[in-house]
């Protein structure tokens, strides 16, 4: 175990150390990472199915009805869930030139601002995705029906994808909230602040 991940005996309220790579900050993050690693195998399945379609289409002149739409749906679903994985593992885009040059206390407040803006964004997206998902599964006359692609195969992938987006945005909003609570509750210790000042004076 590396020194940066060893227990430090920090009291409640101290700044929580960064977790090991691809572990996650909260139980929700860790569940997302676990599920994400399992679902990543679907990319291999997408490649195999796409190869199958190529062989059928160009060698036997017998294209399938289902491969293109299935692969598109699977890839879009993984793309949406990838956003949750990126936030869970802290792999989202960050201007590290600024972030790494400030003290732990300032980094903490930068994260707080990030989480607040993320909550605002995800709340607006949640509002929009709810109506999008609702219209995809409920007919204008109030009956239950799934929106379909309108192709010859006509699968309900559009409805399923819109539901996936709504569920993902719900989880994303909860992630931002949990990360905000974590950073508001945990403050840099005096030792961390003094160590940071010492590094800047070197």
TrEMBL record:
| All residue ranges annotated as the Tripartite ATP-independent periplasmic transporters DctQ component domain in the record | 46-185
Which InterPro entries is this protein grouped with? DctQ (IPR055348), TRAP_DctQ (IPR007387)
Is the keyword Lipid metabolism in the record? Answer: no
Q: Which species? A: Marinobacter similis
Its record classes its membrane topology as:
Multi-pass membrane protein
Described purpose of this protein according to its UniProt entry: Part of the tripartite ATP-independent periplasmic (TRAP) transport system.
List the protein's name.
TRAP transporter small permease protein
Q: Where in the cell is it found?
A: Cell inner membrane
One GO term of the cellular component aspect? plasma membrane
Sorted UniProt keywords: Cell inner membrane, Cell membrane, Membrane, Transmembrane, Transmembrane helix, Transport
Q: How does it assemble?
A: The complex comprises the extracytoplasmic solute receptor protein and the two transmembrane proteins.
What is an example of a GO molecular function annotated in this UniProt entry?
Answer: transmembrane transporter activity
Q: Where are the transmembrane segments?
A: 39-59, 65-87, 116-139, 159-181
Where does this protein chiefly localize? membrane
Query: Please, which domain of life does this record's source organism belong to?
Result: Bacteria
Q: Does the keyword Acetylation apply?
A: no
Tell me which family the UniProt entry assigns to this protein: Belongs to the TRAP transporter small permease family.
């Amino acid at each position: 175990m590396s020194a940066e991940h060893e227990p430090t005996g920090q009291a409640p309220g101290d700044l929580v150390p960064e977790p090991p790579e691809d572990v996650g900050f909260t139980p929700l993050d860790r569940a997302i990472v676990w599920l994400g690693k399992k679902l990543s195998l679907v990319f291999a399945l997408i490649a195999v199915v796409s190869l199958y379609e190529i062989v059928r289409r160009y060698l036997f002149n017998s294209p399938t009805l289902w491969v293109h739409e299935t692969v598109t749906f699977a890839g879009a679903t993984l793309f949406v869930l990838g956003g949750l994985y990126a936030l869970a593992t802290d792999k989202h885009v960050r201007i590290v030139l600024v972030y790494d040059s400030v003290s732990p206390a300032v980094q903490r407040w930068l994260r707080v601002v990030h989480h607040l803006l993320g909550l605002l964004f995800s709340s607006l997206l949640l509002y929009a995705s709810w109506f999008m998902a609702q219209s995809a599964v409920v007919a204008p006359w109030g009956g239950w029906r799934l929106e379909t692609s309108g192709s010859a195969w006509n699968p309900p992938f559009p409805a399923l994808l819109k539901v996936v987006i709504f569920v993902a945005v719900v989880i994303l909003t909860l992630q931002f909230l949990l990360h905000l609570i974590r950073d508001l509750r945990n403050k840099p210790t005096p030792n961390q602040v003094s160590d940071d000042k010492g590094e800047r004076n070197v």
